[in-house]
Amino acid sequence: MTTSEGYSIKLPLSCPLVINGEEGAATGGKQFTRENPADTRQVATVAAQGSLEDVQSAIDASRTAFDSNTGNWIYNYKLREQVLFRTAQLIRENAQRLAQVVSLEVGMPIRQATPHVAVAADIFEFYGGLAGKLYGESFTLPNGSMINLVKEPIGVVGLITPWNFPLTQTARKLAPALAAGCTVVIKPASYTPAAAYELVKLMHQTAIPKGVVNLAPGPGVVVGAEIVNSKKVDKISFTGETGTGKDIAARAAREVKRVSLELGGKAPYVIFDDADVEAAARAAIFGMFRNAGQACGATTRLLVQEGIHQRFLNRVVELTRKLEVGAPTRPSTDMGPLVSRSQERVVQDFIKYGLDTGFDLVTGGHKLRGNGFDNGYYVEPTIFDGVDNASKLGQEEIFGPVVAVTSFKDENEAVELANAVDFGLVAGVWSSNYPRAMRVARRIRAGTVWIWDNYAQPVEGIWGGYKQSGIGRELGYYGLEDFMEVKQIFTDGTGLAMKPSYGQVIKE
After folding, report:
1. Which residue among 30, 409, 427, 465 has the highest number of C-beta atoms inside a 10 angstrom radius?
2. What is the fold, at CATH topology level, of the domain defined by 52-263+469-488?
């Protein structure tokens, strides 16, 4: 075992199966490895490669725990509160290790991985506070009969999580599902299995009953497919690529299975000519290059009013060129590597497209070499100006540090350009004229629109999108409702053996 340079953790990390509270190897002992994206000579993680039999066992454990109400999990909200609050505490107590695991598997700079861990703790704590507040409703009809509307957990939930923000994205699904009283099977992204395992391992230091949380790493075509197809799973919560989400929705529809989808984005960032250039430019940089642009809500389109276009672009380019790209372990690193060779290839293909199409490459555009870059997936922060919004560069999600800049004349054109994509996850608006900023925010079809900020994601708010950016909402109380059913319990208050309505069928 070796120590990764700059980290205190030993390698390789591990990710076993976790089924019914027990850790174990995959059937047949199969494993898969995850390389360090900053130094591909190094194996970051060795994970169990779950088989069909393994994922079925995980689903069975979750089904049994729910159907038998193991440990009174469904009704004992005090227990659920304790588990969630204790998980938040354990995350904070183990924050350094968790941040290093995330940084190692994703390639996320440690300066970004540390707050990422803190947010995951906040999410568990928030839903711990809601677990005992799942109030229903009741009212009395004129004839004395009573209607009770009762909120119940939806059942067994399959959580299929992404790699780009592995702890917070898992927490957004797992914490509300548990607060509602569900049981779960987690299928972690194959790039970040250890991050998911570290979280589950901490949870099993709480009072959580066996079988409530199960972890099944492995290929999506086996593990993910069975979670989606199984009749024993009541709901799927998926975050990932839009095409995969469409396929999941289609297959789940065969059983009318509940589905939540958090999918792609092509976020517009609208800069009016009365905007605070310095504030807007710094916010844009944060949204564009955080986690190397590998985020569904990344600022991928800068829509800039003509009167301020060059001044704003100059400042953004100036700030971009000051970014330090390098090893995620260094505290000074602003942007690390991409997650994989395939993602690096996708990003390079988009850059080549921009060059071949004749868009103005104002900065970046190259794979970095030498000075420690040769063994990692490093690409420069890249900005194209004069991009046709209808082009591939203006329409398709890149998931990398490549930004398209487009000019607009007036408010109507800005809104038209912002909405002229298949996605509607997030957007940003900058104008010193607040009525205009609010008016534009209302007109943009996106689940979140920031005014004078970028990528703020308070747990008290929501996350989710319009159009092909998904179905459902995460975070806040809406995120909890996604894991609950509402049941009507009707109690007769008349005491009549022969109700007036019965006369439609029964003659006296």
Report:
1. 427
2. Aldehyde Dehydrogenase; Chain A, domain 1 (3.40.605)
